């Protein structure tokens, strides 16, 4: 597997890459490809979140569950899609909450690369998926890897903001030291949550916390 990942993350996670469960993930993905199955995101983008937001730059963590399983959608950043791809429903709701929370207007596409470059680590708990088959790779070991990622962020950094949306993301709270990080919990932004996400004010709370701890706020309109 062609691992394109920032050198800081490579050093932090080197022990994980050497473990048997991770070798099993790689073997599974190679087998899927040999069998002619299409996997999203493309191999070079599986670790895009890690490559775009180096460990030292992480200020905010937004945890997703599974990559998009439609053609051209997944590019290794949770909730994000590449330029030119229609904005997914959950992301539309995220934008609406930002507008209401911060009294701004968002006129942007579905790419969240600029968030990632500001220090928003857009992590999916599962990093790959078979085309048109949601959660198809949820049991191959990725959660073990990303749990280690969340734990490393919690242990080695201070004053991060973790945004946990929906029950799956909330289940990861036990990995985070809430004494030195801000953990924000809300319903999932999916339309299936019937608007329960709205009014969480996570984006203003996040920026206020960052500024209180000497960090520049995130420009969520970029």
UniProtKB/TrEMBL annotation:
Membrane-spanning ranges: none
Substrates-to-products reaction catalysed: Hydrolyzes single-stranded DNA or mismatched double-stranded DNA and polynucleotides, releasing free uracil
Pfam families reported for this sequence: UDG
InterPro entries, per database record: UDG_fam1, Ura-DNA_Glyclase_AS, Uracil-DNA_glycosylase-like, Uracil-DNA_glycosylase-like_sf
GO molecular function annotations of the record: uracil DNA N-glycosylase activity
Active site per UniProt: 66 (proton acceptor)
GO biological process, one term: base-excision repair, AP site formation via deaminated base removal
Assigned keywords, A-Z: Cytoplasm, DNA damage, DNA repair, Glycosidase, Hydrolase
Any GO CC annotation of this UniProt entry: cytoplasm
EC class (word): hydrolase
Record EC number: 3.2.2.27
Subcellular location: Cytoplasm
Domain Uracil-DNA glycosylase-like intervals: 51-210
NCBIfam families: PRK05254.1-1, PRK05254.1-2, PRK05254.1-4, PRK05254.1-5, ung
Function noted in UniProt: Excises uracil residues from the DNA which can arise as a result of misincorporation of dUMP residues by DNA polymerase or due to deamination of cytosine.
Protein family: Belongs to the uracil-DNA glycosylase (UDG) superfamily. UNG family.
Protein name, as recorded: Uracil-DNA glycosylase
């Amino acid at each position: 597997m062609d691992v394109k990942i920032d050198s800081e993350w490579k050093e932090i996670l080197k022990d994980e890459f050497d473990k048997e469960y991770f070798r099993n993930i790689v073997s599974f993905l190679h087998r899927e490809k040999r069998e002619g199955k299409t996997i999203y995101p493309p191999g070079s983008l599986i670790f895009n979140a890690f490559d775009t937001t180096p460990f030292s730059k992480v200020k905010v963590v937004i945890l997703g569950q599974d990559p998009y399983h439609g053609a051209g959608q997944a590019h290794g950043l949770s909730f994000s899609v590449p330029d030119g791809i229609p904005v997914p429903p959950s992301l539309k709701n995220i934008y609406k909450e930002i507008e209401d929370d911060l009294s701004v207007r968002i006129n942007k596409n579905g790419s969240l690369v600029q968030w990632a470059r500001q220090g928003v680590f857009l992590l999916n708990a599962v990093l790959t998926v078979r085309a048109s088959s949601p959660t198809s790779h949820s049991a191959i070991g990725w959660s073990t890897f990303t749990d280690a990622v969340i734990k490393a962020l919690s242990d080695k950094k201070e004053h991060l903001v973790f945004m946990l949306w929906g029950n799956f993301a909330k289940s990861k709270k036990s990995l985070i030291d809430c004494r030195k990080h801000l953990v924000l919990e809300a319903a999932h932004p999916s339309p299936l949550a019937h608007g329960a996400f709205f009014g969480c004010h996570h984006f203003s709370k996040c920026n206020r916390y960052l500024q209180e701890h000497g960090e520049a706020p995130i420009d969520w309109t970029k």
